[in-house]
Amino acid sequence: MKRTLLLLMGLGALLASSQQVKVTSRTSPLKGVEAAFYPILNSGGDKLLYSDVDAHGLKMLDLANNKVTTISELNGAGIDAKWSRDGKVYYITSEVNAKDRLVYRTGRRYDLNRNGSEIFLEAQHGAMHLETGTAGMAMNGEKHSYTTSANRGVSVYTTGSQLVVTINGKESRYTPVESYAGYLWSSVSPSGDKIAFFAAGTGIIVTDLNGKVLAQLGNYEMPCWYDNDYIVAQNTSDDGYQFTSSQILLLKADGTFRHELTPRTSMTMQPTAGGGKIAYTTIDGNLTVITLDINE
């Protein structure tokens, strides 16, 4: 039995090592123009959202012509902006109320066809969670919520150490792994059958839609789906005060493969993926967009 197990482990390692990843293109579209942080590619990979280092304001870069459009100049707009399936941009702004000195958050939506934003969830105190579903969008506030449709397909968000999964309007909550510091960065795979998220102290977890753990990919951050089989993530280290290294990784969602897209010394971070492209920035805000050839 032990010999069989060792042979199977060896075969798995051989199969994983046979995979090859090649960066086929690399561009820095905003180099010499401005710094860019919190990049978010749309599903087609032709447009990208970004902000400044303090997430003040939100801009959109058209990768076809390098044209930049300002979506918002309000505080917080760049922290958790998301693309909807129909190409609109959903984002949250925040401001301190002059009367009670509390932070109030407002849900907004930008329409590229109209070149303008509208409020879709009025200002309220407390946390807000944006959900990108396979068939719609939702914004969950502590007092009021909003959804683009009663059935938004499969969507997910995290609150504390809970994974909140909504399937065809029915909400379920799961705690797949223990994490006293909570979960972050949850998303549904392109085919809508898997979920990836970060659990503090454990790393990236992949589950099915019922919260069953399918794979633990390592103690990396900011997972995003490259396609239904691969995830892009950030691998950082620090000395308790500042980053000492940071790189971008390509991980297979079943945990059998890991590839370094950038070296640890590159200080690259905040990965995003869409349309066969990967974008990331550096600690100095140098935005880079790459494409890959994955040979399995």
Walk me through what this model shows.
Helices cover 5% and strands 55% of the residues. It has one helix at residues 2-17; strands spanning 20-27, 37-41, 47-51, 56-62, 67-75, 82-83, 89-96, 103-111, 116-125, 128-132, 137-141, 145-147, 154-159, 162-167, 170-174, 183-188, 195-199, 203-207, 213-218, 221-225, 230-238, 243-252, 258-260, 268-274, 277-282, 288-295. The longest helix is centred in the first third of the chain and has 16 residues, at 2-17. The protein is globular, with a radius of gyration of 20 Å. The chain starts with a helix and ends with a strand.
Can you describe this structure in just a few lines?
This protein has one helix at 2-17, and strands at residues 20-27, 37-41, 47-51, 56-62, 67-75, 82-83, 89-96, 103-111, 116-125, 128-132, 137-141, 145-147, 154-159, 162-167, 170-174, 183-188, 195-199, 203-207, 213-218, 221-225, 230-238, 243-252, 258-260, 268-274, 277-282, 288-295. It is mainly beta and 296 residues long. The strands form seven sheets. It has a four-stranded antiparallel sheet with strand order 1-26-25-24, with no helix packed on it. Strands 2-3-4-5 form a four-stranded antiparallel sheet, with no helix packed on it.
Short descriptors:
5% helix; globular; 26 strands; disordered N terminus; 296 residues; mainly beta
Strand content: over 45%
H/E topology pattern? HEEEEEEEEEEEEEEEEEEEEEEEEEE
Helix content class: under 10%
Question: What's the gyration radius in Å?
Answer: 20 Å
In round numbers, the mean pLDDT is 91
Low-confidence stretches: 1-16
Question: How do the strands and helices of this protein lay out in sequence?
Answer:
Blueprint: H1 2-17, E1 20-27, E2 37-41, E3 47-51, E4 56-62, E5 67-75, E6 82-83, E7 89-96, E8 103-111, E9 116-125, E10 128-132, E11 137-141, E12 145-147, E13 154-159, E14 162-167, E15 170-174, E16 183-188, E17 195-199, E18 203-207, E19 213-218, E20 221-225, E21 230-238, E22 243-252, E23 258-260, E24 268-274, E25 277-282, E26 288-295
Antiparallel strand pairs: 1-26, 2-3, 3-4, 4-5, 6-7, 7-8, 8-9, 10-11, 11-12, 13-14, 14-15, 16-17, 17-18, 18-19, 20-21, 21-22, 22-23, 24-25, 25-26
